[in-house]
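quick q for whoever's on today - can somebody do inverse folding on this one?? i tried earlier but teh output was garbage lol. tokens:
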């Protein structure tokens, strides 16, 4: 699923902006970072500190106004190999190299599986950690949906 997010600049008091967030002096102004050190309140000119923003002064922050989810334009169902790989990793995590790279790419891109470093099952490097394909909750839900009769 693709998520489309629409944002807009909203006027708020300067005191409500959290440290580490960006804010704007005007609607079409440049972004300014509020830091712990200066808290965005002072602008340094030479050795003199002059107030830049009062706590009750109005500044602008970007807020999410609308969020919509949509299927990608080129949505294609999972292949037989991808379904087989998904059911296999539902039972236990499997090393990444056991699967076709295209299948692992599709499963991770769709959020049905993820990679985790787990101990190697191979004799040649038994004590090392290697990348394994692990199913996510979305992957388990997808398998349940596929198992339902039509």
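ok took a stab at it. sequence:
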């Amino acid at each position: 699923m693709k998520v489309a997010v629409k944002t807009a600049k909203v006027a708020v008091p300067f005191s409500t902006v959290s440290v580490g967030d960006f804010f704007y002096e005007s609607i079409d102004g440049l972004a300014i970072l509020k830091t712990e050190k200066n808290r965005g309140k002072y602008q340094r000119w030479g050795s003199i500190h002059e107030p830049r923003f009062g706590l009750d002064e109005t500044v602008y922050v970007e807020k999410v106004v609308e969020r919509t989810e949509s299927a990608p334009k080129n949505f294609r169902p999972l292949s037989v190999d991808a379904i087989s790989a998904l059911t296999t990793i539902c039972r236990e995590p499997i090393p990444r190299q056991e699967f076709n790279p295209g299948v692992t790419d599709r499963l991770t891109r769709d959020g049905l599986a993820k990679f985790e470093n787990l101990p190697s099952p191979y004799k040649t490097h038994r004590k090392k950690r290697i990348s394994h394909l692990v199913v996510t909750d979305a992957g388990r839900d997808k398998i349940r949906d596929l198992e339902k009769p039509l």
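fwiw The first strand starts at residue 2 and ends at 13. also Residues 111 and 138 are 7 Å apart (CA to CA). so keep that in mind when u check it
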